[in-house]
Amino acid sequence: MRILFLGDIVGRTGRDAVIAHLPDLRRTLRLDLVVVNGENASHGFGLSPSIARDLMEAGADVITLGNHSWDRKDLIGYIDQEPRIIRPANYPPGTPGQGSVVVTLVDGRRALVVNVMGRQFMDALDDPFRAATDILSRHRLGVTVQAAVVDIHAEASSEKWAMGHVLDGRVSLVIGTHTHTPTADHRILSGGTAFQTDAGMCGDYDSVIGMAKDAAIARFLRRMPGERLQPAEGEASLAGMMVETDDATGLARRMAPLRVGGKLAPTTPDF
Ligand SMILES: [Fe+2]
Ligand SMILES: [Fe+2]
């Protein structure tokens, strides 16, 4: 299965870039499954139902979330009607929505997508390792699902590496989100799971993690509440990771980063 994961989509420039490029990418890279993180798609904070629909129309099969899941209140009622939008699985029981989804591709193959959130330097939540392994205990990679993708939305690289090792051999890809900074450490772990600490963001990199520089910098310079943060509006870079898996095992065969447009050096997978 040919899978593309795109990191946190930030604001209008980020989602415009995704909507502009994704239909072509789906075709030229012969993608079977596209997963995007949408927690910052609505003006940097949350995901509105209409933007979720636009992203899915452009070719996103599943949208994952994170600590900004509930910034848009209109998503709270919508998420239970749209199973292809998932929020971290380790929110407390009773939280709206689901932390995982199985999507069936046009050719009948099935893919599991899971979203969990880290606990280091983030809100207190249930155990993300237990949440992920609980979900995986209900599926068999290569048997009931041909691929499985886990988005670990977390601040600490250590927690993300640990998640990669805990799930190694049990999923196709463990990929980090939330730091909005693509890491160059993508590799296939010893058990066959593709891993990257952070996918990066789809947004304007002439910014502070996607937000306009002045207000974001002012928060560091003067420890006072100031101007509201606004997304930067320059040309976005898409940042993500492509993985090709073996359907019989669900494990990764090869992986390569994707970066298109904006300030980042471009790169396109050559397989
Ligand atoms: Fe984010
Ligand atoms: Fe986040």
From TrEMBL:
Q: Which UniProt keywords apply?
A: Metal-binding
* Binding residues annotated for Fe cation 2, in chain numbering: E39, N67, H153, H178
UniProt-annotated catalytic positions:
H68
Q: Which PANTHER family match?
A: 2',3'-CYCLIC-NUCLEOTIDE 2'-PHOSPHODIESTERASE
> What's a Pfam family this protein contains?
YmdB
Matching CDD domains, A to Z?
MPP_DR1281
Q: What is the lineage of its organism?
A: Bacteria, Pseudomonadati, Pseudomonadota, Alphaproteobacteria, Acetobacterales
The record's section on Gene3D superfamilies has: 3.60.21.10
Under the heading InterPro entries, the entry gives: Metallo-depent_PP-like, YmdB-like
Give this protein's Gene Ontology molecular function annotations: 2',3'-cyclic-nucleotide 3'-phosphodiesterase activity; metal ion binding
Positions bound to Fe cation 1? D8, E39, N40, H180
Q: Which species?
A: Gluconacetobacter azotocaptans
Name it: TIGR00282 family metallophosphoesterase
Q: Does the keyword Metal-binding apply?
A: yes
Keyword Electron transport in the entry? The reply is no
